[in-house]
Design goal:
Elements: E1 2-5, E2 8-11, E3 18-19, H1 20-23, H2 30-49, E4 52-53, E5 62-64, E6 70-72, E7 79-80, H3 102-105, H4 114-129, H5 135-145, H6 156-165, H7 176-181
Antiparallel strand pairs: 1-2, 3-5, 4-7, 5-6
GO molecular function, one term: protein kinase activity
Domain Protein kinase: 1-184
Keywords: ATP-binding, Kinase, Nucleotide-binding, Transferase
Length: 184
């Protein structure tokens, strides 16, 4: 619910006691990782079908309720599909590097909802490797993932799936709908 009073916008949201980032201080079970990832994909499918690109999918922006349900939040950088981002988008280079699709780093004008798929893949990698790695090793793992290399803690099937989501060519990334139709 939202309303305005004297040129001030008020937004009322549900309360979420934590974010996915808060959950990542402990090792997540495989079932919990799949639960969160499927919910993320369902959310992305919904916003992508509505013609919206989030542009800032990361653990900080994924809220967890008291029933362990994940909700996508912080739509501050979101935009409509097909919108021309041009120079206006240049101000949005503050994204967390690990979760930012390569085409965003080069400020491509042809950004699609596949940037969110890349970010979701990076979130999945984070769920799998956290908290097993220190910050330096985690940084190396993300850099290696860009080249299709994954640490030993990443199962071979997950690594193959991550290669698709983290593909440098956005056209090779699956859609949220395609991911939801895959067998996990």
């Amino acid at each position: 619910m939202c309303w305005t009073e004297e040129r001030t916008l008020f937004i009322v949201m549900d309360y979420y006691p934590m974010t996915l980032k808060d959950k990542l201080v402990e090792k997540l079970e495989e079932t919990e990782i799949l639960h969160f990832f499927k919910q993320l994909m369902k959310g992305l499918k919904h916003i992508h079908e509505a013609g919206v690109i989030h542009f800032d999918i990361k653990p900080d922006n994924l809220f967890i309720d008291e029933f362990n349900n994940l909700k996508i939040g912080d739509f501050g950088l979101a935009a409509s599909t097909g919108e021309s981002y041009g120079e206006n988008f240049a101000g949005f280079v503050c994204f967390d590097t690990y979760f930012r699709a390569p085409e965003m780093q080069y400020l491509s004008r042809n950004l699609t909802n596949k940037v969110d798929i890349f970010s979701a893949g990076a979130v999945l990698l984070e769920m799998v490797i956290s908290p097993a790695m220190n910050a330096f090793d985690k940084m190396s793992a993300f850099e290696d993932a860009a080249m299709g290399l994954f640490p030993e803690v990443v199962d071979a099937d997950i690594a193959q799936f991550l290669k698709q989501c983290l593909a440098q060519d956005s056209n090779k990334r699956p859609s949220a709908n395609e991911i939801l139709s895959m067998k996990f």
